[in-house]
Amino acid sequence: MKAEVLRVPEELDKDTCELVAGEIVEALGKIVTKGDRFVINDTLWYKNNGKKATPTAVNSAKYITRGVAKQIKSLGWTTEMTLAEQTIDGYKEFEVHKAGYTLSKDSTLSLVRESWEGDSYPPNLMANLYELHYKRSVFQPSRESQRNIDLFRKANEAGRLRVGLEFETGNIASSFRALSKLDTLFRENFLDVGVFVTSLDKSSTATRIWPASNRNGSFEELLARSFRGNVLLPLIEVAFSPDEIRSDARYLAKDGSTYEPNPTGEMRTFQGKKYAVFNDSDGLEILKPL
Hints:
Elements: E1 2-7, H1 14-29, E2 39-40, E3 45-48, E4 53-56, H2 61-74, E5 78-83, E6 86-95, E7 101-102, H3 105-115, H4 122-134, E8 153-154, E9 160-167, H5 172-187, E10 193-199, H6 202-209, H7 219-224, E11 235-241, E12 244-245, E13 251-252, E14 258-259, E15 262-270, E16 273-279, E17 285-289
Parallel strand pairs: 2-12, 9-10, 10-11
Antiparallel strand pairs: 1-11, 3-4, 5-6, 6-9, 7-8, 13-14, 15-16, 16-17
């Protein structure tokens, strides 16, 4: 599987950021269907929906999500971690490579006054400084804040970084729920950084693995909805996509295997169009246009 790091927090030191993101990229790279590649068959299949045949998913998202859980667990992550009654896909603590910088209450207020200019929105600025440098000591000052570096105090030790992961293959609403969980845990001081993973876009990933009617989300959709403005936590964004699309590839089963639909020898006709009947990996009827 291809994995691309789209964005990292500027306040997280480079070495620590590369370590965290590198583990996620490594885990995604081990999600394969054939050999060392994640090859997807995007042939469109249908199901019997009463009076008509409608597109149906034959590639299971569980193939991917279970594979990711297995791989991150092998790297020391805790899967299905519950914090403050919120369950996230993964959790791990990392040693920070560089000591962070803190702000006192007075310094935080001074920095807000110094930085309040133009269209800068004080409540967001205040929340960012409060969360990253008043409550925590693992982050570096942003480029904007470095011009007032004298207001910061360097931490005595590097400390540990608490990282939460959400891997999303559902629709856009599911992505926003996952991001909300990570952001809530950050604001309640259970996490320092979030990692969010979803498909790269519609055209090369989401609609090539699942039918367009399934409305699986992607970073393309999230960016179109300005999702970054809805979260405060520092976020590492990682996108996945197939290595290859082939019409002769096997399909993804829920149990982590690949399969070929089983022909039944039956036929169905909907609105004058004929379909051959097959069974998927769960034994459910699926239809192939003739």
